[in-house]
Amino acid sequence: MAAPVVRQFAEQFPGMRFTMVSQPFLAPLFEGVPNLHFIGANVYANYRGLRGLWKLFKVLRAQKPDVIADIHNVLRTVILRIFFACCGKRVHVVRKGLWARKTLTRRRRKKLHPLKTVFKRYCDVLEKCTGAKLPPDRPYRLPAFQNGAGGIPANAIGIAPFAKHKGKIYPPEQMEQVVAHFALARGITVFLFGSAAESSVLEQWEYRYPHVHAVAGRLSLCDELALMQQLPVMITMDSANMHLASFAGTPVVSVWGATHPYAGFYGWRQPPENTIGLPLPCRPCSVFGNKPCRRGNYPCLSAIKPLRIIEAAERVIRRKG
């Protein structure tokens, strides 16, 4: 989610050097901007524990930064920013709005209203670092990813049916009906996105239906982004693929269960009318979808009819012409 915001600030200030530190596999999201440098840091392998963070600090200190923007604000980054603060560096930290999130997701006296988006929270931090605001109407220059996966048919859509947590996953048997509709009734080529761990289910659908191709675990991140850019619509959960498709500039029909767009994690510049969710009194019950359902059966997801998702995707396709 930080990629479009960081890229825009780097483009607005070409005389300023930006260094982004994150997981190595995210490097393609930050390519193509001359003054934006990416450092891949695998904190689970190369920089584990306090000693590993000290090692990472020395790597980052060698970049000679003037100011530090902590847009993650977890224990690891707290330790890193303490190291930098001890060296006299200015540090600005993202404010997550944890209390506001609790009022949105608590069981009783729930306050259902839109919170500040995560994108705006990132902007707030970078505005403090740069001393200037990002114009709200600034056009977003999409990176042009090279498609190493080859050409795609004229009629194609993407579907990413999984997410990290159960509270955000539409029942697979119901999503299979969506896949079958586009593949059988419409003859549309369906590309299935996901992680390598989810590939077994996606490959079963690929085997059962014509015009269905599972790309999970088969394409690099660059190739996936290039493929997404060519699609008229993506159907996703509240997931990483929603954000990747949004970053690529692809319209997204997103399905929301235990979570809610009001928590601020909606896709970058996606129209709100493309969200699908049910107005249940218990929803949202979680910010990240990682809490067990109080009712046990996740009606916020299972009660959504496959036809509703199909119709929403077809509306987007018609708008795209």
Rg for CA atoms: 21 Å
CATH superfamily of the largest domain: Glycogen Phosphorylase B
For the record, the count of structural domains works out to: 2
Oligomer: single chain
User: Count of helices?
Assistant: 11
Number of strands: 10
Taking the sheet with the most strands, its summary is: 6 strands, parallel
- The CATH class of the largest domain turns out to be Alpha Beta
**CATH topology value of the largest domain:** Rossmann fold
Measured between the Cα atoms of the first and last residue, the distance is: 28 Å
Shape: globular
CATH architecture of the largest domain: 3-Layer(aba) Sandwich
Which percent band covers the strand fraction?
Answer: 5-15%
Structural class: alpha/beta
Helix content: 25-40%
Low-confidence blocks of residues: none
Strand order of the largest sheet: 7-6-5-8-9-10
Order of helices and strands: HEEHEHEHHEHEHEHEHEEHH
What can you see in these coordinates?
With 321 residues, the protein is of the alpha/beta class. It folds into two domains: 2-130, Rossmann fold, CATH 3.40.50; 156-320, Rossmann fold (3-Layer(aba) Sandwich), CATH 3.40.50. Helix content is 36%, strand content 12%. Helix 1 (2-12) runs parallel beside helix 5. The longest helix is centred in the last third of the chain and has 15 residues, at 306-320. The chain is globular. The mean pLDDT is 93.
List the helices and strands and how they pair.
Elements lengths: L1 H11 L5 E5 L13 E5 L8 H13 L5 E4 L4 H12 L3 E4 L4 H8 L12 H13 L25 E5 L11 H14 L3 E4 L6 H10 L3 E3 L6 H9 L4 E4 L2 H8 L4 E4 L19 E2 L22 H4 L3 H15 L1
Parallel strand pairs: 1-2, 3-4, 5-6, 5-8, 6-7, 8-9, 9-10
Helix pairs in contact: 1-5, 2-3, 6-11
